[in-house]
Design brief:
about 140 residues; alpha/beta
Length: about 140
């Protein structure tokens, strides 16, 4: 993928196959029966981001489907990689993406779905998040 984020609006076939072969599990938010959490800020490896707990991503099975559901990153089109790195590393108003840990994997939960999924697609290795652990 090239220097502009907009390039992933037009995946080549090899990119599509790679993303379609990358599992990404969608869960519905009502599957979490206990909404009592402990929270901590930590940097996670994006390879451990395995899915999302959101009604609109509840039936996705791979990263390409998740990307398609996110309106193809419309919030970040026309951004350069350097801009993207700043967005990820210096979130506006300290608004960090939120994840919940389930079965040793992280699922997007709350804020930051575009940043998390787009960063994973772009091959970023780590990102700072708020981890919510179910009590």
């Amino acid at each position: 993928m090239n220097e502009y984020i907009i390039s992933f609006f037009n995946f080549n076939e090899e990119d599509k196959v790679k993303l379609k072969n990358t599992p990404f599990i969608g869960k519905r938010d009502f599957e979490l029966t206990d909404y009592s959490y402990e929270s901590k800020i930590e940097e996670i490896e994006l390879s451990n981001l395995v899915g999302s707990v959101r009604y609109d991503l509840s039936n996705v099975t791979n990263l390409y489907q998740a990307y398609e559901r996110l309106h193809k990153g419309y919030l970040y089109k026309d951004k350069r990689i350097d801009d993207w790195i700043k967005i990820v590393n210096e979130p506006y108003n300290n608004d960090l993406p939120e994840v919940v840990e389930i079965d040793s994997g992280y699922y997007h939960f709350g804020e930051g779905k575009h940043r998390l999924i787009t960063s994973k697609i772009l091959g970023f290795e780590k990102i700072k998040v708020i981890i919510k652990t179910i009590k």
